[in-house]
Amino acid sequence: MEAPPRASRWSKERYTNLLIPNYIPPELLLYDEGQFLKAFLLRVLSIDLNRFIETKRCEDYFINIPVEPEYNSDGQRINTPDELVAEKRRRTMDELTNILRQNAEMGPNPTAPKEIVRKRYFSQDEMDNGAYGAILGARGLVHQELEQKTKCKIVLAGRGITNTLKDTSTNAARVALEEPHARITAPNEQALQHAMERIEWILSDDPEAQEFRENNRKRMAQIEGRYDPRTWVSSLEKDNDGAPKPGEKREREEQLDEDVQAFLDEL
């Protein structure tokens, strides 16, 4: 003997909601992090629950969902199908309203905060003495530290800096014709001000800044194998024409020669 057909939780009458499509593409999960699809399904559920209430068939909703009756002290049932369906519809509408409110607060087309771009152009003296190189530092360590501390993106570019043979970007040729500069991209004015102050200090005539640049020059020369303490000429000596002329010995070398000569005389 065949088992009787399982009762349906829906009414026996044919029901079609023409406002709801019969196919939902899975790509909707990608739109707005799935919030659109969630709101859509909540709306569908609220419409169906409202249909149960209006047709006074709330008990059909629980055909396959057994509900144990609960009564109060007066013997009245407190979890009737009508009350349960109405409560479920209220919760559904509250959740849907919350999603719509959050979307309204974000705006129709939320955009990321606009970044601030500023250029600090290098003078001819800063290019000639290579002071701008201290912004990069040996192996780019100073540049990395600057970006981490200021939360800005700092790019050195322009004539004499951008190498079109190494830089294959589409804008490399155009940027190579610009005046040499440091382009600072900051998330806000405070970060931009911080980055500008640090760059201005590195390029300034402050004794500590000069020592900072000189240490970077030495470190880069050591990495590249160009550093020799016997012949090294600091930037300050170059600016003051303190470098020895061809055939002229530096003070340290003269002192070494005197010590060697004194040692030979003692022999």
UniProtKB/TrEMBL annotation:
InterPro entries hit by this protein: BBP-like, KH_1_KHDC4/BBP-like, KH_dom_type_1_sf
Keyword Transport (UniProt): no
GO MF terms held by the record: mRNA binding; pre-mRNA branch point binding; zinc ion binding
Biased composition regions of type Basic and acidic residues, renumbered to the chain: 236-253
Keyword annotations from UniProtKB, A to Z: Metal-binding, mRNA processing, mRNA splicing, Nucleus, RNA-binding, Spliceosome, Zinc, Zinc-finger
Domain KHDC4/BBP-like KH-domain type I: 133-201
PANTHER family: RNA-BINDING PROTEIN RELATED, SPLICING FACTOR 1
Designated name of the protein: Branchpoint-bridging protein
Lineage, broadest ranks: Eukaryota, Discoba, Euglenozoa, Kinetoplastea, Metakinetoplastina
